[in-house]
Amino acid sequence: MGGCHLARVSEYLPYLSLSILMRSILFVILFLAGGNGFARNQADSSWSHQPTLHLSGLADVYYVYDFNQPASIKRQAFLFNHNRHNEFNLNLGLIKLYLEHSKYRANFSLHAGTYGNDNYASEPGLLKNIFEANIGISLNEKNNLWLDAGIMPSHIGFESAISMDNWTLTRSLLAENSPYYSSGAKLTFNPNEKWELAGLILNGWQRIQRLEGNSLPSFGTQLKFSPNESTTLNWSTFIGTVDPDQLRRMRYFNNFYGQFQLTDRFGLITGFDFGVQQEFKGSSDYDIWLSPVIIAQFSIDQRWKAAMRAEYYQDQKGILIPTETRNGFRTSGLSMNLDYRPSPFLICRIEGRRMTGGDAIFDTKTSTSRKNFILGASMAIRFSGGF
Fold it and tell me: Which spans are transmembrane here (predicted)?
């Protein structure tokens, strides 16, 4: 009986440690925000002010030619944006309603395109077409403590699914293989203009619907520091599992990045992902994956910009990118793109990208190759208005 009791206690240790961690984070945020702010917030007359409803939309159409000429139109299993060969297509079409108020907010958006087809493949039914659906409420008088819940953009990384907001046309390998979206609740505190702290409870690693058979929620944190308008430093984490309870391997993930506008014309982004996952349930041994990236952007004039990216991704055990090859996924990449932006609402882009693997992992017409080179082009447009 004693041995069984100890086994049951050890089984619940992950729950206890994660619960203690998240409670500590939430307590710190709430304490820093000021405990008596909630009572004052209830009496704030601004709650009765009329909110503003915004409508916005986006369309990102593209063409990519893969010089490996893969047999399939879909180029790579580990890419989720602009991932069709020799075909004109829609990467992301988006329509969004945004409700804005000083005390509450809401977002609802639907999407279509090859990005959604590839990245939401595990979601059931109509959930595949929900890009964002969340509600937020201010928890104090200063409006610097917010609780948001629903389907939200991920707190991880510097690249989003919206191409116009990124420095490069295609996404970095580390962005493509970390969450673009999440579903859960997020508590965000901004003590001042320089700092942002957040704690999250999530349904899983990029999941809207919780994995069947998994009873353990996932957790996340974010710490962002912007000492001035030219610099942003960020550390985001994820703690959880991607398995059902009987197979549960714990996953611990860190994302670091810094964004620097060094001059009026020259900017730099450096990023690094590092994650570990148990080899099997209860194991003290962990498999690791990591990815560094650096992106430099140069503004030629008000309409033209150029960017260059160097990156590396190592996942030898195939945690996120299984290859069934001797060296696993060990890939370096270089890319260069040129952007023409005649209007803040329209951008035309072209990019060349070369990737080199440790093994022959890139599909060709008849076999596989260690190397891959593509040329891609895109036009994206955005509109918005208020009611």
Answer: 12-33
**Other CB atoms within 10 Å distance of the CB of residue 246:** 8
Q: Which of the four pLDDT bands, split at 50, 70 and 90, describes residue 48?
A: confident
- Any idea what the CATH number is for the domain that residue 11 is in? 2.40.160.10
Determine the Cα–Cα distance for residues 233 and 178; give it in Å rounded to an integer: 18
Q: What are the φ and ψ backbone dihedral angles of 83, each rounded to 5 degrees?
A: -115, 45
> How many structural domains compose the chain?
1
| pLDDT > 90: percent of the chain | 83
Domain span including residue 320: 2-386
Contact 281, 305 (CB under 8 A): no
Query: DSSP per residue over 102-161, as a string?
Result: SSEEEEEEEEESHHHHHHTTTS-GGGGGEEEEEEEEE-STTS-EEEEEEEEE-SS-S--S
Asked whether the CA dihedral 33, 36, 39, 41 is positive or negative, the reply is negative
Q: What pLDDT does residue 1 have?
A: 43
Nearest to 271 by CA among 147, 373, 168, 139: 168
Question: What one-letter code names the amino acid at 44?
Answer: D
- State the Cα–Cα distance between residues 291 and 255, nearest whole angstrom: 9
Whole-model pTM: value is 0.88
